[in-house]
Amino acid sequence: MRPRTGQPERFAVPATPTTDPLQRERDHLASSRAALRAMREDVESLDIRDVTGTWVTAIVLQNQIEARIAALADLAHTPLFFGRLDYLHAISEELSEGSGGESFYIGRRHVHDADGDPMVIDWRAPVSQPFYRASRTAPMDVERRRRFGYTGGELTAYEDEHLSDPAEGDTASALLAAEIEKPRVGPMRDIVATIQPEQDEIVRADISGTLCVQGAPGTGKTAVGLHRVAYLLYAHRERLARTGTLVIGPNNAFLSYIEQVLPALGELDVAQATVQQLVGHVEVRGEDSPEAARLKGDARMAEVLRRAVRSGIALPTEPCVVVRGSRRWRVPVHELTEIIEELKGREIRYGAAAEALPQRIAHAVLLKMEQSGEAPDDRVQDAVARNAAVKATVKQCWPAVDPAKLVLRLLSDPEFLAACAEGVLTAEEQAAVLWPKPGRSVKTARWTAADAVLVDEATDLVRRTASLGHVVLDEAQDLSPMQYRAVGRRCSTGSATVLGDLAQGTTPWATASWPEALHHLGKPAAHVEELTKGFRVPEEVIAYASRLLPSIAPGLAPATSVREAPGSLTLRRVAEEERAEAVVEACRRALGREGSTGLIAADARIPLLAEALTAAGLPYLAPGTETSAEARLTLVPASLAKGLEYDYVVLDEPAAVVAGEPDERTGLRRLYVALTRAVSGLEVLHAEPLPEQLR
Ligand SMILES: Nc1ncnc2c1ncn2[C@@H]1O[C@H](COP(=O)(O)OP(=O)(O)OP(=O)(O)O)[C@@H](O)[C@H]1O
């Protein structure tokens, strides 16, 4: 494999007989594909029998080779390159072989010819960066930026900007517009060809710091987060291969929607999970009242748990007497007390202290042995640490803690909770946190999602949670402080990219301010960026939805849209008895156009609408099931709409969406999410009056 040095790489346009510029580009595509094929064949022909020492290394190597072959696949509908940069000057002294400028083709992956000269440069390489950032005001030595257009895998068009030519005016990119408007059938796509400058800043931000992105619906937060992972894996491949990366999303429907993006960018080793999956120590079967869930997610619970974990620590009442042969060694109570007080004062995990304690007691015994003229070695200390008397002292003073059992007791035993929560939670709050019925055992208790987070916190108090190298946290605004802590533990020695929109927070504990959230995450120094340019929702629709902003997130600026689409918003009032039928008709209308359709409705109305669709002979999918050319309609409960998008959205009865939530603000936020899922058209059907902000 050629090492990636991070150095710019040079490509010289080969002399081709044709003078037609489009044909020349097609020729370059053809020779790049041939080169990629040759690269793959090279790897396929590798014979590892001679070079591997053991069968273990052979398997490891074989796996690497297979991964490499997969990564070198030429996907018919994924263009090998999408852009070209012509620099004014040679990029660097060592690499320049002539006096003129250089050209680089920018694509998803690196491709080189038989001599090792690059034919396509990875979009993440430093030399590709001006493709995304260069502008007329800061051309970055780029003479010409060329974007390519493809139709069904064929290179059919290109578009040039002469950035260093003061005479050329700005024009909107038709290829960019076409890319954004492309019908949305199937899973989420990558945006590698059209990443915008402000998005690129986030994608390529340094790995050492945590970054938080506040962004209105459709501003590309999810897309940017995923491309950032791909970028970081490129720039820090070895480090992240060791420490791991993780993308966290709100639910499985969302995760299946985004799961293809990283593989399409050649990155197959990124884990994806929901917060609930991360904290899966216990089986969740119960549900909390909103008030109980809010309290259990409150950061004060961390202190309650800390006290609970340490509640078993007791000072000794008896000396520890170790018998070895004919001699008895006695560590008196005051010495044991000193050791335990010292361990209590140190900020180490409960479990680590429990492991240190027998060694400390043994050490005290050793000192006594030495004072009486013996010369014990380390083996003696280990043996003493395992002595039954020492074990008994440890058991009494620093008992083992089973995190799930501990939380079970905390939520079942009012006295224990009162002891741990004194001065932290009021009596009413304690009553709200307690389970309605005490749990009998860890297996049978009706754990809730918030309880599982408490168990995770307790587990970490006992034993440190392993940290990953980088975590991307999407739809972060819905996390409770305790959930932020759970995520924070998983990147305590790494960094994070936190993505969210305060206006879309629909949990009772939704984030009110990013600095506060970042504090709970354990990354108070994180930088907060804002994205306001919307790529999904047409101007007319986002302007309508933004009327809700003063009621749901007063501080936030409304998003602008990169697209005008007159006629993209339809409001239709219908009689109640005709509502279901009208919704079915609206779906039919939407399905008459190209792309996907989402019918979004209050969760409570889903069964009724499902029936209406079936009766009308309209097949539909559930969110998370991939849409295809044959199955383009998805029936989406409002509670699952977050993060998803459809070309056309039919929104059923906004008042019911609002009423489906425990309070009006949350209801309006849920509605804001539902109103901002459409790429090309939104039709709102209602029998009840619309919320006043939308009339
Ligand atoms: N630079 C871009 N070029 C082309 N399409 C883009 C670009 N940025 C974003 N998009 C598209 O806009 C749509 C919205 O992006 P994305 O889902 O990442 O937004 P979001 O901010 O996460 O939205 P939400 O807050 O609703 O979850 C996606 O289809 C995405 O591919």
UniProtKB/TrEMBL annotation:
UniProt keyword annotation of ATP-binding present: yes
Binding site for ATP: G215, A216, P217, G218, T219, G220, K221, T222
Region named Disordered: 1-26
Keyword Nucleotide-binding: yes
Coiled-coil zones: none
Top-rank taxon: Bacteria
Keywords: ATP-binding, Helicase, Hydrolase, Nucleotide-binding
Gene3D superfamilies for the chain: P-loop containing nucleotide triphosphate hydrolases
Limits of the UvrD-like helicase ATP-binding domain: 194-538
Full protein name: HelD family protein
